[in-house]
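Annual report, structural modelling task.

Input specification for the iron/sulfur cluster complex:
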Amino acid sequence: MATSLNGSSAASIVARAQGLFDDLSFTAARAWKAAEPGRKVIGYMPIYVPREIIHAAGMLPLGILGGGDQLEVIHGDAYYQSYICRIPRSTIELGVSGRLDFVDGMLFPSICDVIRNLSGMWKMMFPNVYVRYFDVPQNYKDGIGGNYYVSELSELVEALGTLRGKPISDDELRHSIAVYNENRRLVRELYSFRAQRPWQAPAAEVYLVLRAGLVLPVEEHSALVRDYLAAAEREERPRRDNCRVVLTGVFCEQPPLNLIKSLELSGCYVVDDDLLLVTRWLTADVPTSGNPLQELASAFLHHSESTAAKYEPDLKEKGQHLVRAVRRSGAEGVIFACPSFCDPALLERPMLQHVLKDADIPYIAFKYAENSGQMQPIREQAGTFADSIKLWSGA
Amino acid sequence: MTVIVTPKAGPAKQVVKDDSMLKQKEMMAAHYERLTNAPETGEKVASTFVPGNLNELIKCFDLLNNLPEVNAIQSGLRRQSGSYVLEAEKIGHSEDVCTYVKSDIGMMAKGNIGPNGKRLPDPDVLLLSYTGCFTFMKWFELLREQYKCETIMLHTPYMGDGKITKNMIEYMVKQLKEEVIPKLERISGVKFDIDRLREYLKKSAVAEDDLVRVLQSAKSKPSPIDAYFGGIYYIGPIFGAFRGTDDAIDYYKFLRAEVEERLANGQGPVTPDGDMGQEKYRLVVEGPPNYTNFRQFWKMFYDEGAVVVASSYTKVGGVYDFGFRHDPDKPLETLAEYCLGVYTNRSLPMRVDMLSNYIDEYAADGLLINSIKSCNSFSAGQLLIMREVEKRTGKPAAFIESDLVDPRYFSAANIKNRLESYFQMIEQRRAGARAAA
Ligand code: SF4
Ligand code: SF4
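The model returned the following structure:
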């Protein structure tokens, strides 16, 4: 359990995180940048970028996750057909409305064709910003995918070094790796705490605390997670007679906060999820000795999360990460929540469902958009699911 | 994304007398016969995709190339895709996802009957040439689940920065050498012979030369071809199972001769209703066509005297018009370069450049985008592409929406209206330009 206690209440920590979440002008990141001349901010989208490299350049990695349900999309819709998900249009909205005018670079990870193409749009629309499509290998052999990835990482290191006017050293990278190792350890601790006592760390709170890490400098975020863990441990919260579920499919376009809250209100404790995977993508500490880029590459190849955007070379392994998440967190069922029009999540879903069926794990599925307002159907579905799980486990 | 169409569904009277059409028809029929007879003949089958299709390599292992995208197109043309898509949705696939995948999965669920009325064989290997489209990965993972056969991933990095780097080529060549080739050797029982590959690549380049001549004939006025609706026939062999064969060389030789003859005679394109009338509008088209109402869609163009002089869809299985040819002197590198260069693997700025240049080089009146509901790879960003191309060329652009093989998303009335307004807009611009002159 974390030791650094400053006595803050869970409510005050969550209130701070909520403030960061609500702030669509990114005031905190702007303030960070303004505090010292020459500071730079690099935005990134889901699903994963090695934030260590941005940090090593002395820059602030800033997670850009669309506009949620509070942003009025005025221009963004003119860029997308109705059958494309929401996140790119609200992200464009953030861009064209000037909310990202302090961002010096944007990384678009290899997750799907929509974000891939958004990288090109960004290049055309914001020609003064450093834009990179961040490709990752789909081959997991060190000598093949690993070599390719190390070269890709080197290009990023070089580009960010150029952007700040001084090359990034290996020692800077090693230091940043250590800082992020610590952050990931804390995030994992938070997840295992919640899996054990979900009533002490409600899903919406965990989400907000995690999400703060996409805006704050990592050191500050680690302190925040530590404080939250301490508070969650300390404060007794009422325990409901909820069932325990893993929430999956929510790895890119964000579900509205209300959706996450609704699940718990309707009887489902979320004990694991694939929200904000960047915060725990690497599942083990990255060694801080040796060649830092090799180590980052090796961690990516051999110790990283499974998700729809990643190829699973072994048929027998397909979907097993989800079964393991269920077992590890003591979940009784799985909720598939997928963004409408999301090919990766929706094409993956039937395969995962087959695996769950074989493992005798119940599930339900629905779609959402980041700006979905009507939660009643989801509440009803989740409520019925919770009831039926209780019925089975009682039988 | 894809392309092969059997001539059966295409141009009527002229088809019969064109050597190229006859040739293609024979080639396709023979190929489907070989495929459907594979369980009896013992030939092994590799399923793969059109963008990043490694036909020369597949042939080195005596494997038969089966392209699920092409099967989906065939289902679309034969008006069976609608029921296949519904079948896939019934068994749990979302209404939101790519209909090529659903058409394929629905067809499997309903017995996997090919265009020749016989059952298509189960693949011995899924060659997941992961090029230009994320959906490919999910598609073959889904098929792997069904067929439980070996699946080989070949990852083509995306040209995000508009260039092919040494790192990309090395990565792909390594995958070919250390993963793809050894696995294909094991599955086929045939030892890899790089000289055999060179021979096939040499043949590819010959056919590619002729294809480019055909496509570029559209620079003439009037254009002797329609480079979208007609172009889909022309790319069939080379994007499908015939690149690297003598058949493809012959086909493109015939085709080129026919097109050159039309050119010499000052004739326009052949349409399903015979020779097209006077060429009134010259368009560049971005995006795949609709296949469920293919002829109806085409007719909306040729009835108005609109000819497509260049299209991006005819570049999804390879971009040859900027000089790339399969090169037997660097056999694996050339395969890598080919995959990297296909249209859907190009960044958006590259696509804007290509389309704008086409408008200039082919003296087109403007850009028409057919935005496909299924296809995020093509569609995401097309509205910006449209505005950029308009801005750069000063030529009007228009936007229509349909789907590849889902008949629910083809609204003839809407599309026709849009096209009519677009043609009027072109007329107005011309009148304006004349007045200003
Ligand atoms: S929500 Fe899905 S389709 Fe949309 S950008 Fe994210 S991964 Fe791509
Ligand atoms: S998304 Fe587009 S490119 Fe990919 S399989 Fe579907 S139609 Fe083809």
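The radius of gyration of chain A is 20 Å.
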